[in-house]
Amino acid sequence: MNPIKTHREGAILLVTLDRPKANAIDLETSRIMGKVFADFRDDPELRVAIITGGGEKFFCPGWDLKAAADGDEVDGDYGVGGFGGLQELRDLNKPVIAAVNGICCGGGLELALSADMILAADHASFALPEIRSGTVADAASVKLPKRIPYHIAMELLLTGRWFDASEAKGWGIVNEILVGDQLMDRAWELARLLASGPPLVYAAIKEIVRDAEDSKFQDTMNRITKRQLPSVDKLYASEDQLEGAKAFSEKRDPVWKGR
Questions:
Q1: Mean pLDDT of all residues in the chain?
Q2: Average pLDDT over residues 56-82
Q3: What would the DSSP string read from start to end of 32-56?
Q4: Listing from the earlier edge strand, what are the strands of the sheet with 48-53?
Q5: Statement to judge: residues 23 and 53 lie in one domain
Q6: What is the pLDDT of residue 142?
Q7: Residue 250 banded pLDDT, cuts 50, 70, 90
Q8: Could you give the number of structural domains in the chain?
Q9: Alpha helices, DSSP H only, in 43-182?
Q10: Phi/psi at 230 (nearest 5 deg)?
């Protein structure tokens, strides 16, 4: 049974992690997810992805400790994109929405943090409990202190305590909280909105954000103005750039072609 289910609707790809009982990720599942997201990245017809979990109880608890006990190595081959196929996937310049439908902890929270927007069901819960299994939440240790207040990030990393969707939203970890049966409706609504937008602009935004993460402001600005970022160079030479200006002057909706 394939642990990853996909569904296409126009320019949107829905990816569902459906691996009973808890949607934990082993090495094989991670490699499958990497292939799915790499194909999404490389498919010119797809513009937005949604990642969610099967069922209503678990989004993803992260690493499959049972598989690890049976021989899966924690530093084994996770496949392209690293654990869960997203957090180390190079040049992913398309929006990804995480729809957190339940328990989201450990590597599952790191997977959600790899998305660009996070929607959470009101019953969702979160934690980074790696300390209790004698390992480190490596990706979260890199990302979380950059996204929320340092002392809160360190508390969550060092204690492994659980927190609910309301607290997650309060710290800016999630964008919206939805009643459980409204979660996927909202995820699709948001995905359709993004899919109707300018894909070349989205690509430029994502590349600029990545470049700026470890650069000085002026260094990134210089790369933008000198068109040294591939997505920015493509945007500035595109039909879409001209179409945006024409549509504005003609007071009509633009028609984006992604070229």
A1: 94
A2: 84
A3: HHHHHHHHHHH-TT--EEEEEESSS
A4: 4-9, 12-17, 48-53, 96-100, 117-121, 176-178
A5: yes
A6: 95
A7: confident
A8: 2
A9: 65-69, 107-113, 138-147, 150-159, 165-170
A10: -55, -40
Residue 206 near residue 92, CB atoms below 8 Å:
yes
Q: Are 146 and 173 in contact (CB under 8 A)?
A: no
Which tokens sit at 111?
Answer: 């997977």
pLDDT at 1 over 80: no
Cis bond upstream, residue 21 (ω within 30): yes
Residues 186 and 203 in one domain: no
Q: Which of 195, 220, 237 is the last residue of a domain?
A: 195
- β-strand 125-127 against 4-9: which pairing, if any? unpaired
Q: What is the pLDDT averaged over residues 67-84?
A: 82
Q: Alpha-carbon distance 156 to 110, whole Å?
A: 13
DSSP label of 85: G
The helix or strand, by DSSP H or E, that contains position 160, with its residue range, turns out to be none
User: Could you tell me the maximum CA-CA distance found in the chain, to the nearest angstrom?
Assistant: 64
Can you name the residues that pair with 9 across neighbouring β-strands? 12
Residue 254 lies in a domain: no
Q: Are residues 84 and 178 in the same domain?
A: yes
Structure tokens at 224: 């933008």
Domain that holds residue 240: 199-249
Q: Do 162 and 229 have their domain in common? A: no
- pLDDT (average), residues 179-189: 96
pLDDT given for residue 186 in this prediction: 98
What average pLDDT does range 104-118 have in this prediction?
A: 97
Indicate if 180 and 215 belong to the same structural domain: no
Residue with tokens 């409990």: 129
The residues that are catalytic are 110, 130
Buried b / exposed e over 201-238, threshold 16 CB at 10 Å, is bbbbbbbbebbeeeeeeeebeebbeeeebebbebbeeb
The single-letter DSSP state of residue 130 is G
